[in-house]
Design goal:
Largest sheet: 3 strands, mixed
Organism: Candolleomyces aberdarensis
Strand content: 5-15%
Biased composition (Polar residues): 1-12
Helix content: 10-25%
InterPro entries: P-loop_NTPase
CATH class: Alpha Beta
Region (Disordered): 1-26
Radius of gyration: 16 Å
Oligomer: single chain
Protein name: G domain-containing protein
Number of domains: 1
Structural class: alpha+beta
Number of strands: 3
Order of helices and strands: EHEHEH
Number of helices: 3
């Protein structure tokens, strides 16, 4: 795994601390794009992957790469990052650098019959430590 990247994703991690910070004389189009990480955490079968898929679909984005279960079973066994670009008009409205992305981090659920809760916590802790 490359330093500063999300495990198994190939997506570089970044600190969105600069989001919303105004730099006088520098337009949003001139600021460096960032990744805004949104970890989605909850119980196994709670709809985390479905939530992410629904966000993508509601924004007209391709969601075929997002695996969901058709019931209340578990389908996510490792961290998976799903990103989409923030449109320039929305970036300007919220003072976010143009070209930035929202990165939804799908996590395995707690009380999963396949993976222990301690392993889930370890996966998330390793990811957070890489930030």
């Amino acid at each position: 795994m490359a330093a500063g990247s999300l495990p198994n994703s190939g997506i570089p991690a970044s600190n969105p601390a600069g989001a919303g910070v105004t730099n006088p004389g520098v337009s949003n189009s001139e600021r460096k794009a960032i990744n805004i990480m949104i970890p989605v955490i909850g119980p196994s079968g709670g709809g985390k992957s479905t939530f992410i898929k629904n966000v993508f679909e509601s924004l007209g984005e391709d969601s075929q790469h997002i695996t969901v279960d058709d019931g209340f079973g578990s389908c996510t066994l490792k961290l998976a990052a799903h990103s989409l670009y923030i449109t320039d008009d929305v970036a300007d409205q919220h003072n976010i650098p143009q070209g930035s992305r929202l990165v939804f981090v799908d996590t395995p659920g707690f009380d999963n019959p396949v993976i222990y809760d301690s392993e889930v916590v370890s996966l998330m802790a390793n990811w957070l430590a890489s930030e």
